[in-house]
Amino acid sequence: MRYFVAVAEELHFGRAATRLHMSQPPLSRAIKQLEADVGALLFARSPVGVTLTPVGRVLLDEARALLDHADRVRARVSAAAGVATLTVGILGDGTDPGVSRLAAAYRRRHPGIDIRIRDTDLTDPTCGLRAGLVDVALTRAPFDETTLTMRALRTDPVGVVLRADDPPARCDRLRLAELSDRRWFQFPQGTDPIWQSYWNGGRPREGPVVRAVQECLQAVLWNGTVGLAPLGNELPAELAVVPLTDMAPSRVVAVWNEGDTNPLIRSFIEIATAAYRN
What is the pTM assigned to this prediction? Predict the structure, then answer.
């Protein structure tokens, strides 16, 4: 199920294999075996990537629910066994140098702690924090902060992602008003409205519904949809990002539940603050 979800969110076997820290052939074999077990194709393959079939879309919702439940079971069993663990939710680019510095520093400080990572999609900016799926989250603001405590780690300017052959992509900078007639990607119904509004440039928009970063990029590539992204992230050659002059920066933040006194979380926040400052 984890292999399937990775391919479904990346929509590319190579990127999914990189995310899973494995080579592509065994991943492809596992997905083919899963399709044989299900009795139907889960992905439509093409030279540029894959898309989910109707059966695959149904399985994706069920797989996410199963994996969330498995994470909760693992956490409860570990707690009963007395194993010291910290579950970290990460939204966005896990290759951020700040994440790498933080991981190395935390391992040095707490070599005996079992660190578990939950890589999440764009529908929950708290990475499952309120649902009890993680202890602390590395994510981006703004979103509803009720019952949560937040530490800002860094701010990044934001740009608009376009196809490289889209005429506005040749501009040095743009304003939101210059994109008012374009279709933007949307998040599913029920997504935090503050989060949705920010990534829609502060006003209601129309466009395809997406859940993962790769789905956003594919919407731009295939449909000419526009969307926002922090500057500095690597993009495929077919896409370009143009800085927006009137868009508030995106804040990288560490978030945890209000009143949680776990010393491992407190240490995580201290180390994260230093790692991102550097």
Answer: 0.71
